[in-house]
Amino acid sequence: MATLSHREGESVLIMPLIKVKTSISQPEKSQVESLLKDLSASLAKHLSKPESYVMTAFEPDVPMTFGGTTDPVCYMEAFTVVLEL
Fold first, then answer.
1. What residue range is the signal peptide (predicted)?
2. What's the Cα-to-Cα distance from 61 to each of 3, 19, 29, 37, 66, rounded to whole Å?
3. Average confidence (pLDDT) over 47-55
4. Higher pLDDT, 5 or 42
5. Domains of the chain, start order
6. Contact indicator for 78, 16 with CB cutoff of 8 Å
7. For 1-85, where are the alpha helices, taking DSSP H only?
8. H/E run at residue 12
9. What is the rounded average pLDDT of the residues 16-43?
């Protein structure tokens, strides 16, 4: 986890996170693992941070529509979780 000094005597935990949600109910485990590893490495490189600071998550079987259809779709969020310690 990334711990940075915020003020003297205080710290904050900064963790970039990418969440992937999809309407597909049973993607192959190997495909999910490969996707998450690729996303983790890409985000770490983009942010010039060690990959140990990056978190990825995958949520299958989420009811979604896009363009008025229920065809398979995915949604990704990228944000930073910041916790004061």
1. none
2. 34, 14, 14, 20, 15
3. 90
4. 42
5. 2-84 (3.30.429.10)
6. yes
7. 29-47
8. strand 10-22
9. 96
